[in-house]
Amino acid sequence: MRTDTICVQSGWKPKKGEPRVLPIYQSTTFKYDNTEEMGRLFDLEDSGYFYTRLQNPTNDCVAAKIAELEGGVAAILTSSGQAANFYAIANICQAGDHIVCSSTLYGGTFNLCAATIKKLGIACTFVDPDAAEEELEQAFLPNTKAVLGESVANPALVVLDIEKFARLAHKHGCPLIIDNTFPTPINCRPFAWGADIVTHSTTKYMDGHAMAVGGCVVDSGNFDWDAWKEKFPGLTTPDETYHGIVYTEKFGKLAYITKMTAQLMRDLGSIPSPMNAFLLNVGLETLALRVPRHCSNAQKAAEFLAAHEKVEFVNFAGLPGDKYYDLAKKYMPKGTCGVISFGLKGGREEAVRFMDSLKLAQIVTHVADARTCVLHPASHTHRQMNDEQLREAGVTPGMIRFSVGIEDPQDIIEDLEQALAQV
Prior knowledge:
Helices cover about 40% and strands about 15% of the residues.
């Protein structure tokens, strides 16, 4: 099926007499007729449901839809986008390992890699995503286990050269993990360009209405874990907590997601509620309709801002002359996303005055839903970073992140215009 049809039809496949709409399996547990049946589930000898912390039919249907949208072999929903990124790393890394990350990662993900996983013994080297391959190669170490980047960085809007990072990652026996939250699979399919694992904060465009926090991890099934067997013992050697199962031998291309379900969800439990998965599915049904509107509205708003005398700079890859215009045309020919970042002449104080003067756009700690919203990254999402880290992340003190919704574009522009008149 084509993308628009997958958004509507994939996932839940009702049989005769079953509900047309995906049911909410709001149950913690599932019944079996005898002890042996349930025992085989605990041993991973049979597939089925027994406890929602590991798997739930509502959640799995939605995960299957996202996997199909991305062109992957399997996916798992998590309770947030942050959980998805953590799980993607923790599923293949342990104390003593090392990862390479783009320095322009979203602030929360930057903190996850720079501070939290560091406490767990996993080291991280941040690299300039625009650096030449020769320079980037210096970041790799013998114990490097993964590379992490964002297809479109939040909020710097750097477009990652996915093929370049895939080449480097694979040369060093590492999977490339791409956070594809901003473009969504409507605009970008990272697996087609060499990425191995994709993550999402489904809280954003996929949900689309700011109703439910969530995340997703999708596996392409393309990375050959056995070719680098010694680097990934969690997948390629016996798991004693499951009677010596070797995931790559028993589950093949499903090894990565099966291990994430059987180990990380079992032990850490960042599972979304079935109700949240249901709401996410409702959002996914209109994803292919909403994303083009976000992009066209953002294009108009970016062009307005770029022409205004009080605006110092505009970051939006849809503008000819933008640093990432050519990369965006290569990886995302239909558009990048509905988010713009820009700065005013006068810096931080002017940015705050402008934001406080907006009427239609609301100041919220959110981005990428149907309503236009605005945020000051240096004061909000990236507040924990020092000045050097802000520069590495592509965030200036006066930068404004403007998430363009699906309202009438002229109303959005008029709101920008009246707020600019106040500075």
